């Protein structure tokens, strides 16, 4: 038995560092996901055109990084589920660890991945702008960049990161629920689909309220508070449920 007593913070730090090294491939997949979403975004979200009697024509195309953000949210959601699998949990047994330290290390890794993914999604939006200028017949372009509007740029990055944290927490809770009982692999999608269909068809006002509460908040600070509270509840739920998992023998 070791005479050195490890504190919880030391154990979490070592597990976190291990997970960052072990999951470097996750960030490689992020690049692939964002490149695919970039290709989907090249067509633009909408366009309008007009002509004049002199033969001049004006076409206005709108490009948005929304598709890139959506694909990145899907990436962080799937990553959060994968980090709860049994194989990953068993890797933690190479450390003197417990459920709490393992979950805290997982959450720290997901927060790191959310920050990287959220910031990368916004920067990919600038790459989209560059590609459209180089490949398209663009005479004049408008948009916000760090140099043009630094405040809006930081708001976009912050909001994107907060979205990633929210979806990582949702994915982590989903993965933990499935690990507690495999029957939820089938039950959980059915419940979510049923709830979405019921709310969307039977109660449109509730659907709008839920959507506006999460996705249509105009204040960044209020959005941050909502996101942090919901994410904390999701992570706390995962922590509680993980205590019901079997112990490796």
Structural notes for this entry:
The chain crosses the membrane at residues 20-40, 60-83, 104-133, 153-174, 183-201, 221-241. The chain is mainly alpha-helical and 249 residues long. The chain has one domain (8-42, 60-180, 217-242). It has helices at 8-22, 24-41, 66-82, 86-91, 99-135, 150-180, 184-202, 204-215, 220-242; strands spanning 46-51, 57-62. A two-stranded antiparallel sheet has the order 1-2.
What is the topological layout?
Blueprint: H1 8-22, H2 24-41, E1 46-51, E2 57-62, H3 66-82, H4 86-91, H5 99-135, H6 150-180, H7 184-202, H8 204-215, H9 220-242
Features:
249 residues; mainly alpha; two-stranded antiparallel ribbon
Strand order of the largest sheet: 1-2
Work out the strand percent: under 5%
Shape: globular
Element string (H = helix, E = strand): HHEEHHHHHHH
Number of helical segments? Answer: 9
Give the N-terminus to C-terminus distance in angstroms: 19 Å
Percentage of residues assigned to helices: over 70%
- Low-confidence stretches at least 5 residues in length (pLDDT < 50)? none
């Amino acid at each position: 038995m070791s005479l050195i007593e490890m504190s919880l913070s030391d154990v979490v730090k070592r597990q976190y560092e291990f997970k960052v090294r072990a999951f470097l491939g996750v960030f490689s997949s992020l690049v692939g996901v964002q490149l695919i979403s970039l290709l989907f975004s090249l067509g633009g979200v909408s366009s309008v055109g007009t002509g004049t009697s002199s033969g001049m024509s004006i076409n206005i195309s709108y490009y948005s990084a929304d598709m890139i953000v959506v694909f990145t949210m899907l990436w962080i959601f799937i990553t959060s589920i994968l980090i709860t699998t049994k194989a990953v949990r068993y890797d933690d047994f190479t450390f003197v660890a417990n459920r709490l330290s393992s979950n805290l290390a997982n959450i720290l890794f997901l927060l790191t991945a959310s920050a990287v993914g959220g910031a990368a999604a916004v920067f990919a939006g600038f790459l989209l702008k560059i590609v459209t200028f180089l490949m398209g017949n663009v005479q004049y372009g408008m948009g916000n960049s760090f140099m043009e509007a630094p405040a809006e740029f930081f708001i976009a990055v912050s909001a994107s990161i907060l979205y990633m944290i929210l979806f990582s927490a949702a994915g982590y809770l989903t993965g933990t629920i499935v690990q507690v009982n495999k029957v939820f692999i089938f039950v959980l999608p059915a419940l979510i689909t049923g709830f979405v269909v019921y709310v969307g068809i039977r109660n449109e006002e509730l659907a709008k309220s839920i959507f506006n509460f999460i996705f249509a908040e105009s204040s960044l600070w209020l959005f941050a508070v909502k996101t942090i509270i919901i994410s904390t509840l999701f992570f706390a739920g995962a922590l509680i449920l993980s205590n019901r998992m079997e112990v490796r023998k």
